[in-house]
Design a protein that fits this description.
Largest sheet: none
Low-confidence stretches: none
Helix content: 55-70%
Radius of gyration: 15 Å
CATH superfamily: Winged helix-like DNA-binding domain superfamily/Winged helix DNA-binding domain
Strand content: under 5%
CATH topology: Arc Repressor Mutant, subunit A
Distance between the termini: 46 Å
Structural class: mainly alpha
Mean pLDDT: 87
Shape: elongated
Protein backbone atom coordinates (compact mmCIF):
# COMPACT_ATOMS: atom_id res chain seq x y z
CA UNK A 1 0.00 0.00 0.00
CA UNK A 2 1.44 3.37 -0.96
CA UNK A 3 1.41 6.54 1.14
CA UNK A 4 -1.18 8.21 -1.11
CA UNK A 5 -3.68 5.38 -0.44
CA UNK A 6 -3.05 5.63 3.28
CA UNK A 7 -3.59 9.39 3.26
CA UNK A 8 -6.84 9.02 1.31
CA UNK A 9 -8.15 6.40 3.74
CA UNK A 10 -7.29 8.57 6.74
CA UNK A 11 -9.01 11.58 5.18
CA UNK A 12 -12.25 9.59 5.03
CA UNK A 13 -12.31 9.19 8.81
CA UNK A 14 -13.89 12.22 10.40
CA UNK A 15 -13.90 13.25 14.06
CA UNK A 16 -17.26 11.64 14.80
CA UNK A 17 -16.20 8.31 13.31
CA UNK A 18 -13.06 8.36 15.43
CA UNK A 19 -15.10 9.23 18.53
CA UNK A 20 -17.61 6.42 17.87
CA UNK A 21 -14.79 3.89 17.48
CA UNK A 22 -13.15 5.06 20.70
CA UNK A 23 -16.45 5.08 22.59
CA UNK A 24 -17.25 1.55 21.44
CA UNK A 25 -13.88 0.28 22.66
CA UNK A 26 -14.29 2.12 25.95
CA UNK A 27 -17.77 0.69 26.52
CA UNK A 28 -16.49 -2.86 26.00
CA UNK A 29 -13.70 -2.26 28.50
CA UNK A 30 -15.99 -0.46 30.96
CA UNK A 31 -18.44 -3.38 30.96
CA UNK A 32 -15.70 -5.68 32.29
CA UNK A 33 -14.64 -3.41 35.17
CA UNK A 34 -17.78 -2.91 37.25
CA UNK A 35 -16.12 -3.98 40.50
CA UNK A 36 -13.15 -1.63 40.21
CA UNK A 37 -12.77 1.83 41.69
CA UNK A 38 -13.69 4.71 39.36
CA UNK A 39 -10.09 5.99 39.31
CA UNK A 40 -8.87 2.59 38.11
CA UNK A 41 -11.61 2.40 35.47
CA UNK A 42 -10.67 5.82 34.10
CA UNK A 43 -6.95 5.03 34.07
CA UNK A 44 -7.45 1.71 32.27
CA UNK A 45 -9.77 3.16 29.64
CA UNK A 46 -7.39 6.06 29.03
CA UNK A 47 -4.48 3.65 28.65
CA UNK A 48 -6.40 1.42 26.26
CA UNK A 49 -7.41 4.32 24.03
CA UNK A 50 -3.90 5.80 24.06
CA UNK A 51 -2.43 2.45 23.01
CA UNK A 52 -4.94 2.32 20.15
CA UNK A 53 -3.73 5.72 18.96
CA UNK A 54 -6.61 8.01 19.91
CA UNK A 55 -5.83 11.63 20.74
CA UNK A 56 -6.31 13.24 24.12
CA UNK A 57 -9.31 15.26 22.93
CA UNK A 58 -11.16 12.10 21.89
CA UNK A 59 -10.15 10.28 25.08
CA UNK A 60 -11.33 13.17 27.24
CA UNK A 61 -14.67 13.28 25.45
CA UNK A 62 -15.16 9.53 25.87
CA UNK A 63 -14.39 9.70 29.60
CA UNK A 64 -16.84 12.60 30.02
CA UNK A 65 -19.54 10.74 28.10
CA UNK A 66 -19.05 7.58 30.16
CA UNK A 67 -19.66 9.77 33.22
CA UNK A 68 -17.28 7.86 35.47
CA UNK A 69 -16.83 9.83 38.67
CA UNK A 70 -13.50 9.49 40.39
CA UNK A 71 -12.86 10.34 43.99
CA UNK A 72 -11.50 13.73 42.94
CA UNK A 73 -13.51 16.92 43.14
CA UNK A 74 -14.56 18.23 39.73
Amino acid sequence: MDQNSIDEALDEIDGEDEYRMAFGLAMKKYATMSRLEADVQIRRIQSLLQRKGFGFDVIGRVIRELDIHSGEQR
